[in-house]
Design goal:
CATH superfamily of the largest domain: HAD superfamily/HAD-like
Number of domains: 3
Function: Catalyzes the final step of sucrose synthesis.
Bound molecules: alpha-D-glucopyranose, magnesium ion
GO molecular function: magnesium ion binding; sucrose-phosphate phosphatase activity
Subunit structure: Homodimer.
Distance between the termini: 31 Å
Number of strands: 18
Strand order of the largest sheet: 5-4-3-2-1-10-11-12
CATH architecture of the largest domain: 3-Layer(aba) Sandwich
Family: Belongs to the sucrose phosphatase family.
Largest sheet: 8 strands, mixed
GO biological process, one term: sucrose biosynthetic process
């Protein structure tokens, strides 16, 4: 939360499954479009929050399967667990607070009496969350009776039904909405200028009730969320039911509510929506790597102009230190790139960056650090990358690039280097 010096321009709070992540899209096109948008235009002055029903265990599984960015704050297990930063430091105060009138043992004693409730996997049973599957047809009756019995036993609980199948029992003070309210209060003098919440299912409903927020229900939103909206927030102009699925719906909402740039560089290279963005190192990095990806995939026209434009971005005596320790001139790398036009055509080849951060270290010099991810077929590699950029009136010049392998990877040096 302390990454930014002033209030965030936008705090984007998104659910993961079928909101940020479209499980029907194996190419992850819209997720990658969102990633490029976020790192180019928002990372430096905004906050990304993931709010998921998943536990830490299954959240990590999803991170291994999908090209998710690293959020600033992660809210897990339906708002019962909050963690900060890259290293997921847990908020112990939040967990202590949730102990109020909560007794997990009493909950399970009562739920055991319902044969309709099928316990979810062990990983999803958490200190402040007891989770089941229950048929849609039986859900409302079970919820009504169970709630009554738990209240009779002195507990302050809430029951949430999601995706037409999952039933969670939580402390009354928990849930995605309560967790967000808690976070907003914690910002104290640095409350984000705008907040956009994004969701698709029942456990997301309370996000839309948090005071002052904009909200987007993605096109593929579940019946229970749409019903909640119809009965509780029908005339709320700050909630959009997107005509686009998942992450595409999030991008759509950013545009709809005027919360910032809404054209991803994946859709249009070199097109800063605001001219000032040209001076943003995040824009520079995302734009350059996408140009390289599209060149290798043969998705841009093979023209001398494109190559010259790329070449003009590099300092003639600039150096690239590859993760293997091998050093090359940036010119040599560009020559290799030039020859690699279309080499990745039709391949599962994608490049994206995460965690772009930068520091101005001189009047016209920036030190930029980020994770560069490269998916090639089934292999996915991550390079921690540092770049020295020099700002000239015509834009940034790349002076030096240095990479380190992440996750202890010791793969052989590749034939084609994408700095
Ligand atoms: C996620 C969790 C599950 C929960 C569901 C709905 O799928 O893994 O435990 O029931 O979200 O909140
Ligand atoms: Mg969801």
């Amino acid at each position: 939360m302390d990454r930014l010096n002033s209030a965030a321009r936008l705090m984007l709070v998104s659910d993961l499954d079928f909101t940020m992540v479209d499980h029907n899209d194996p190419e992850n096109n819209d997720l990658l479009r969102f990633n490029a948008l976020w790192e180019a235009y928002f990372r430096h002055d905004s906050l990304l929050v993931f709010s998921t029903g998943r536990s830490l265990t299954t959240y990590k599984e999803l991170r291994n399967e999908k090209p998710l960015l690293t959020p600033d704050i992660t809210v897990m297990s339906v708002g019962t667990e909050i963690a900060y930063g890259d290293s997921l430091v847990p908020d112990v105060y939040w967990e202590q607070y949730l102990n109020h009138n909560w007794d997990r043992k009493i909950v399970t004693e009562e739920t055991d009496k319902f044969p309709q409730l099928v316990l979810q996997s062990e990983t999803e049973q958490r200190p402040h969350k007891v989770s089941f599957f229950v048929d849609k047809a039986k859900a409302s009756q079970v919820i009504e009776v169970l709630e009554k019995r738990l209240v009779e036993r002195g507990l302050d609980i809430k029951i949430i039904y999601s995706g037409g199948i999952a039933l969670d029992v939580l402390p009354r003070g928990a849930g995605k909405g309560q967790a967000l309210t808690y976070l907003i209060e914690k910002f104290d003098g640095k409350v984000p200028v705008n907040t956009l919440v994004c969701g698709d299912s029942g456990n997301d409903a309370e996000l839309f009730s948090v005071s002052g927020v904009f909200g987007v229900m993605v096109r593929n939103a579940q019946e229970e969320l749409l019903q909640w909206h119809a009965s509780n927030a029908k005339n709320n102009q700050k909630i959009l039911h997107a005509s686009e699925r998942c992450a595409a719906g999030i991008i759509q909402a950013i545009g709809h509510f005027g919360l910032g740039p809404c054209i991803s560089l994946r859709d249009e290279l070199d097109s800063p929506e605001y001219s000032t963005q040209c001076l943003n190192p995040g824009f520079e990095v995302v734009n350059l790597y996408l140009a390289c990806e599209k060149w290798q995939r043969g998705e841009v026209e093979k023209s001398e102009e494109f190559v010259q434009n790329l070449k003009s971005k590099f300092h003639p005596s600039g150096v690239f230190v590859h993760a293997s320790g091998v050093e090359k001139s940036l010119n040599e790398c560009l020559d290799e790139l030039e020859k690699s036009y279309g080499h990745m055509q039709g391949c599962r080849f994608r490049v994206w960056v995460d965690r772009v951060s930068s520091a101005q270290i001189g009047s016209d010099t920036w030190l930029v650090k980020f994770d560069k991810w490269e998916l090639s077929g089934k292999e996915c590699r991550c390079y921690l990358t540092t770049v020295l950029l020099n700002l000239k009136p015509e834009g940034f010049t790349w002076m030096h690039v240095h990479q380190t392998w992440m996750n202890g990877s010791t793969l052989e040096t590749e034939t084609v280097w994408l700095f």
